[in-house]
């Protein structure tokens, strides 16, 4: 599992780690039932506090991405890929709502916003 922490990111370190683990699960790089590094091992690898990695694992577990078994470790949760994908869709909806609200306050109409999205999609496909 490769996690990169950016010192210039606006996101807190725990959020960067959490997002990258969630993305790896959604992309299938971390498979259902796969064991994650221990909280201490991950903290040592990333050179962050154990409290930071504990928070990451606690939040991932509360969101249904991982399960933790006492004395055995933390594992990618099984059979909830649909839940995970729904979570990702919700994140996109929240971001689109933010973009829509920003566009409205700037006087950008629906057609212009759609045109901007078309450009973004075209650039993303290149």
List keywords for this structure.
126 residues; mainly alpha
Question: Which ranges are low-confidence, i.e. pLDDT below 50, for 5 or more consecutive residues?
Answer: none
Strand proportion, as a percent range, falls in 5-15%
State the order of secondary-structure elements, H for helix, E for strand: HHHEEHH
Q: Please identify the structural class as seen in this structure.
A: mainly alpha
Taken from the alpha-carbon principal axes, the silhouette is: elongated
Q: Give the strand line-up of the largest sheet.
A: 1-2
Secondary structure tally: strands: 2
Q: So how many helices?
A: 5
Q: What is the assembly state of the chains in this entry?
A: single chain
- Report the major sheet: 2 strands, antiparallel
The N- and C-terminal alpha carbons lie at a distance of 28 Å
Rounded mean pLDDT is 90
Helix content, binned percent: 55-70%
What radius of gyration results from the CA coordinates? 18 Å
InterPro entries: Tscrpt_reg_HTH_GntR, WH-like_DNA-bd_sf, WH_DNA-bd_sf
Pfam families: GntR
Keywords: DNA-binding, Transcription, Transcription regulation
Protein name: GntR family transcriptional regulator
Explain this structure:
This protein is 60% helix and 6% strand. It has helices spanning 13-26, 39-46, 50-62, 81-105, 110-125, and strands at residues 66-69, 73-76. The chain has a two-stranded antiparallel sheet. A hairpin with a 3-residue loop joins strand 1 and strand 2.
């Amino acid at each position: 599992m490769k996690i990169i922490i950016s010192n210039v990111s606006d996101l807190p370190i725990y959020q960067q780690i959490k997002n990258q683990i969630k993305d790896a699960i959604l992309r299938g790089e971390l498979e259902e039932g796969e064991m994650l590094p221990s909280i201490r091992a991950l903290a040592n690898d990333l050179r962050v506090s154990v409290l930071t990695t504990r928070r990451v694992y606690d939040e991932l577990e509360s969101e249904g991405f991982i399960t933790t078994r006492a004395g055995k470790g933390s594992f990618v949760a099984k059979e909830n890929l649909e839940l995970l994908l729904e979570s990702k869709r919700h994140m996109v909806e929240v971001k689109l709502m933010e973009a829509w609200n920003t566009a409205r306050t700037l006087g950008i109409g629906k057609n212009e916003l759609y045109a901007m999205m078309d450009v973004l999609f075209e650039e993303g496909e290149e």
